[in-house]
């Protein structure tokens, strides 16, 4: 009996998604509050986000991460033990970072949950003892990744593409951690955990008129701080394609990353064409890169493309871990597939599948409280049109093959790419040299070095 050909189901009509709009008000200190009532379930979520621009930490890199780890480890208004005990009793969750706080609870505990979030976020109790503990954890993590090829690759992709002095290119070292004092943590918090760039999104079984005075009472005394903000020059892509090689003698695989930097805002007309192009290139199992490197050649468990977007400079990274002996061949195939997305229109099937994937994920998430909060926040912080998410499905469906091709040419800058490879130089450099692509060598901290010499 002849096997029937499998065909992907034809997508039906796109669903209509009703995204609730928040009721908003702004405190005198600048905090913007967005409240979305949803009485389907007896739950409430609180999301406090501080939308600060990125900043470099220099020889004290790790200060902001330590600040993140320390917020929530006790407050001047309630002990760490009592805080955790009360959270457990209510069955609530509360998390903090140096630029956010998140909480969720049953609606009957909503007022107390918000109080505890405010205590932890606005009156943290930083101590030397807790700082020493968190430093020790970070140092232990750094040492455990000392010979990790994937960890080195993740660090070097950012360091080389953005620059080591750029906020997105800095990385933590034991030396930078040693420079950080308790006073640095307190100063970092005071300068950056500020209300004028802050948004509090409240979603769930709550009434606007009841929660508004509670927010005003808890957050009204949060003081503005006018801290100076540094403007950093955008990183520049290399003038011609080059290989940046980092030798790790113990590597059993090569980590390959093809990277460009650029600016792509969510409110730009290129946003949806670019993310769809990225998905077709390396975003799904049937993507160009995965079907080539994994399915056709069997060189890897997977190949992917990740595209960034937002207010600040970001990058696109196509990456995979491959066997040592095919590193040079994999580079050729990366280039081949990126050239393809830049020179050939995608098929109708590829375009429709990519659209259906994005629409499906959007529909699944759109009703969730955390998504409603994020959409409300994005609309404010990314300067999006008020109807951006209402028109999300329509905008995706309007993307054409020509749009995808144009976006791929604009953002996948193959002729100005860094091909960053972390691997065993002794085994892979001879093959790479035959590609006639300039090779520059770096150590695992991004410092230029001479070509390694092998016995």
UniProtKB/TrEMBL annotation:
InterPro entries according to UniProt: Metalloenz_LuxS/M16, MPP/UQCRC_Complex, Pept_M16_N, Peptidase_M16_C
Pfam families xref list: Peptidase_M16, Peptidase_M16_C
Stated name of the protein: Insulinase family protein
Species this protein is from: Flavobacterium palustre
Annotated Peptidase M16 C-terminal domain residues: 179-357
Ranges where the Peptidase M16 N-terminal domain occurs: 33-163
